[in-house]
Design brief:
The strands form two sheets. Strands 2, 4, 5, 6, 9, 10 and 11 form a seven-stranded mixed β-sheet that branches. The protein has a four-stranded antiparallel β-sheet with strand order 1-3-8-7, with no helix packed on it. By secondary structure, it is mainly β. The chain starts with a strand and ends with a strand. It contains no helices and eleven strands.
């Protein structure tokens, strides 16, 4: 079974930084896509960032470009999302996700496996 578990969330002040981690287990594929998504209160879930197995595809939502960075530790099967200059609009539940297909897009329906999500709250 594939398991994804997010960690590193919590409350922060506007302008601060936070790093989310996602530990992935039971997931082995030569080609894959890993991503971060988020859902703010009363809004639909949206893509934040995605990275392909060979780093050939890396994509960010316009709202986070220049502030967030997606990366991963291949040896430990951990996906990261480094977030800088956080603002209240970044408040959401953040989910990591994985697909056994190569990334071509940052879309929710391209993902197969999901973590349970972790709350990030940014205060003014």
């Amino acid at each position: 079974a594939v398991y994804l578990e997010e960690s590193g969330g919590g409350p922060v002040q506007a302008g601060e930084s936070l790093r989310l981690s996602c530990t992935i287990s039971g997931f082995y594929n030569n080609n894959y896509c890993l991503g971060w998504f988020r859902q703010a209160p009363e809004k639909e879930r949206e893509g934040v960032a995605a990275i392909s197995s060979d780093d050939g595809f890396i994509s960010y939502a316009d709202s986070v470009k220049g502030r967030f960075t997606i990366s991963r530790d291949r040896s430990d099967n951990i996906l990261y999302l480094q977030m800088h200059s956080l603002n209240p609009e970044d408040t959401a539940v953040y989910y990591c996700a994985a697909s056994r297909q190569y990334c071509y897009t940052l879309r929710e329906d391209a993902m197969e496996y999901w973590g349970k999500g972790i709350q990030v709250t940014v205060s003014p």
